[in-house]
Prior knowledge:
The complex is a heterodimer. By secondary structure, chain A is mainly β. In chain A, strands 2, 4, 5, 6, 9, 10 and 11 form a 7-stranded mixed beta sheet that branches. Chain A has no helices and 11 strands. By secondary structure, chain B is mainly β. Chain B is 0% helix and 56% strand. Chain B is built from no helices and 11 strands. In chain B, strand 6 (56-58) and strand 7 form a beta hairpin. The termini of chain B are far apart. Chain A binds chain B through residues 4, 6, 31, 40-43, 45, 48, 50, 88, 90, 92, 94, 96-107, 109, and chain B through 9, 32, 34, 36, 41-46, 49, 51, 90, 94-101, 103-106.
Amino acid sequence: DGGITQSPKYLFRKEGQNVTLSCEQNLNHDAMYWYRQDPGQGLRLIYYSQIVNDFQKGDIAEGYSVSREKKESFPLTVTSAQKNPTAFYLCASTASREDYGYTFGSGTRLTVV
Amino acid sequence: AQSVTQLGSHVSVSEGALVLLRCNYSSSVPPYLFWYVQYPNQGLQLLLKYTSAATLVKGINGFEAEFKKSETSFHLTKPSAHMSDAAEYFCAVSNTGFQKLVFGTGTRLLVSP
């Protein structure tokens, strides 16, 4: 079945280390997104990509970086510059249609100690 | 820019009671509207979507929503709550042009026996 796979489900890192979260989709979707979710704050957009080798900053891009070398993959790196990286991270994808909606992965919970 | 407002960060109902989760949107053009559900430590799952085909939209798990242009609302309802409905619910609106969903802050539904 088609879908989005995020790995790992849980991730622990020491403060000051960079960490990369994986997101892979086999839906042949053009666009992919990264969201951060904190309790009581809903979903905040970090980065998104509409086509391969192109991506745009979202509302809270500082301290994060992404790449889109393949249509299926959109990894997110949380750098040491991110002040408060502990959060639940969600990846999503969609076909290039306004009425399509998003398909979400199951998320990665990152804890920095 | 389009936005959605979800009234009430928490809604409590008894099992078997009516569920009503409120969502109001701001849009200068006919929007595409979505409701998503999120269970703990999981991604978001599409419940239903409005794409102008019909004002009353039926979704999964017995939920439905009615698009009311005069009230700029898209409230989510279910006639009889079940314990398994306890989750967080997000309303979202699609921007014109390339799709970038704008999410509300979410409403947590609590169901008591």
